C-alpha cells in the first residue's frame, strides 16, 4: 500500500470525522466510508494481489509481498527480447521477402543480410535502452517497497500501527477510530469515461498533529470491500476467518507452474501447441531468472518491523485483551440482521439516513 502526503486531506477527515456508511464527494469522484466503527460489509473476505504478509493470533501485517514480481520481470525481459527479435529476424525477413517485387534482381539473402546488419546495430542500442528501463522499474519498485513498513493490526490490543515513510516511530491508532474508505474516481480518455477504484485508510498522528493517508488501487469496488472485510473480520473474529498469508514467488513457483502445465496437458486441458508456447515464452524471458528476481525481492524488501514496536506486538494474557465497544456490538448486530433480510451495505445505511432525516424533521 502506498502512503501519501500527510497534508492531503481531500475528504476533510481531520476537521470533520466521517462514519461508516457515509459518502463524500471530492474533486474527481466519491468516497464511501467503511469506518470509524468498523461494521460488517457483507462481502466475502479476500486478498487479491497478496497484501497479507504475516498473520497469527496476535497481529495481521498488511504490506506488499513478492506476488507479481516474477511477472513484472518477465514483462520487462519480454519487451527487450521482443524488440531484439523484431530487429534481428522479423525486419530482415520482411525486407528479404520484398525481393519478389524488386527490379534489381537481388535475392532474399542479400536483403536479409543487409537489414540484419542494420537490425544488429539498432537492437544493440535499443536493447540496452530497454534493459536499463526494465532494470530501473524492477529495482526501484523493490527499493520503494523496502522503505515502506507493513501496517500491523493487533487484534488483542484492538489497535493498528502505521510507520510514516523513512521513520521508525510508530503511529498507534485505536481500531474502532480508524478511518477507511473505498473511492471511485472518473476521468476521460478522449474516447470514453473510465473509473478507477481506491481502497484507503487514514491514521491520526497526535504528536505531529497530522493525518497520514494510505492508498491502494483495486480492480473493482468488490475487491476493495473484500480487502477491508479481510482486515475487519480478522480483528473481530480471528485469523481462521481471514484469508491466509500471501505466498511469496520464487523458483519453486516456476516448478509448480511447469508441473501444472504438464498435468493440464495430460488431462487434455492444454494442447501440444499450448505446451510449446509455454516453453517458448519462458525461454524468451530467460527461464527461471524472473523467479530468482522475485526471490531477491522477497529477501530484500520483506524485513522485520522496527524494535520500537516489538513490545506492543507481544501476546497478552486473554483477560487483558481489549473488548469491542458496546456501540460497535449494537451497530454490527443491526446490520447483520439487515443482511439476513436481503439488504446490502449501502441499502442499510441509506435507509437509516432517511429514517434519521425523517426523525429530525418531526422533532423540528
Question: What would the keywords be for this entry?
Answer:
2 domains; 364 residues; disordered C terminus; alpha+beta; 6-stranded antiparallel sheet; 5-stranded antiparallel sheet
Brief digest:
The protein has 364 residues and is of the alpha+beta class. The protein is built from eight helices and eleven strands. The chain folds into two domains: 193 residues, no CATH class; 125 residues, no CATH class.
Could you characterize what this model shows?
The chain has 364 residues and is of the alpha+beta class. The protein is 44% helix and 18% strand. It is built from eight helices and eleven strands. It has helices at 69-97, 108-146, 221-237, 251-266, 272-284, 289-301, 326-340, 345-363; strands at residues 2-4, 23-26, 29-35, 52-55, 59-62, 151-154, 159-162, 171-174, 179-188, 193-205, 210-218. The model is unreliable at 354-364 (pLDDT under 50).
* Helical/strand content category: alpha+beta
Strands of the widest sheet, in order across it, are 1-11-10-9-3-2
Q: Give the averaged pLDDT, no decimals.
A: 81
> What profile does the largest beta sheet have?
6 strands, antiparallel
Please compute the radius of gyration using only Cα atoms: 27 Å
Helix content range: 40-55%
Give a count of the beta strands, DSSP E runs of length 2 or more. 11
Strand portion: 15-25%
Low-confidence stretches: 354-364
Amino acid at each position: 500500500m502506498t502512503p501519501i502526503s500527510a497534508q492531503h486531506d481531500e475528504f476533510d477527515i481531520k476537521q470533520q470525522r466521517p462514519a461508516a456508511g457515509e459518502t463524500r464527494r471530492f474533486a474527481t469522484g466519491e468516497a464511501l466510508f467503511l469506518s470509524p466503527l468498523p461494521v460488517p460489509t457483507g462481502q466475502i473476505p479476500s486478498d487479491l494481489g497478496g497484501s497479507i504478509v504475516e498473520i497469527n493470533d496476535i497481529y495481521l501485517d498488511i504490506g506488499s509481498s513478492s506476488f507479481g514480481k516474477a511477472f513484472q520481470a518477465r514483462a520487462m525481459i519480454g519487451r527487450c527480447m521482443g524488440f531484439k527479435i523484431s530487429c534481428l529476424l522479423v525486419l530482415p525477413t520482411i525486407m528479404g521477402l520484398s525481393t519478389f517485387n524488386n527490379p534489381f534482381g537481388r535475392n532474399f539473402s542479400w536483403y536479409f543480410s543487409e537489414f540484419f546488419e542494420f537490425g544488429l546495430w539498432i537492437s544493440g542500442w535499443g536493447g540496452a535502452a530497454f534493459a536499463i528501463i526494465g532494470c530501473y522499474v524492477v529495482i526501484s519498485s523493490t527499493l520503494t517497497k523496502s522503505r515502506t513498513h507493513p501496517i500491523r493490526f493487533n487484534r488483542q490490543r484492538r489497535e493498528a500501527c502505521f510507520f510514516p515513510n523513512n521513520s521508525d516511530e510508530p503511529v498507534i491508532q485505536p481500531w474502532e477510530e480508524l478511518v477507511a474508505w473505498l473511492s471511485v474516481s472518473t476521468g476521460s480518455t478522449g474516447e470514453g469515461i473510465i473509473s478507477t477504484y481506491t481502497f484507503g485508510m487514514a491514521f491520526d498522528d497526535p504528536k505531529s498533529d497530522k493525518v497520514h493517508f494510505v492508498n491502494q488501487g483495486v480492480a473493482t469496488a468488490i475487491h476493495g470491500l473484500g480487502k477491508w472485510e479481510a482486515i475487519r473480520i480478522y480483528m473481530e473474529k480471528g485469523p481462521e476467518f481471514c484469508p491466509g498469508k500471501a505466498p511469496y514467488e520464487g523458483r519453486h513457483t516456476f516448478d509448480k507452474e511447469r508441473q501444472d502445465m504438464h498435468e493440464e496437458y495430460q488431462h487434455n486441458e492444454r494442447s501440444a501447441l499450448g505446451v510449446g508456447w509455454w516453453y517458448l515464452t519462458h525461454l524468451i524471458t530467460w527461464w527461471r531468472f524472473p523467479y530468482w528476481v522475485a526471490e531477491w525481492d522477497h529477501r530484500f524488501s520483506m524485513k522485520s518491523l522496527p524494535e520500537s514496536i516489538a513490545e506492543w506486538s507481544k501476546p497478552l494474557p486473554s483477560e487483558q485483551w481489549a473488548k469491542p465497544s458496546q456501540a460497535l456490538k449494537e451497530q454490527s448486530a443491526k446490520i447483520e440482521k439487515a443482511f439476513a433480510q436481503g439488504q446490502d451495505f449501502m441499502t442499510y445505511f441509506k435507509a437509516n439516513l432517511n429514517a434519521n432525516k425523517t426523525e429530525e424533521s418531526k422533532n423540528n
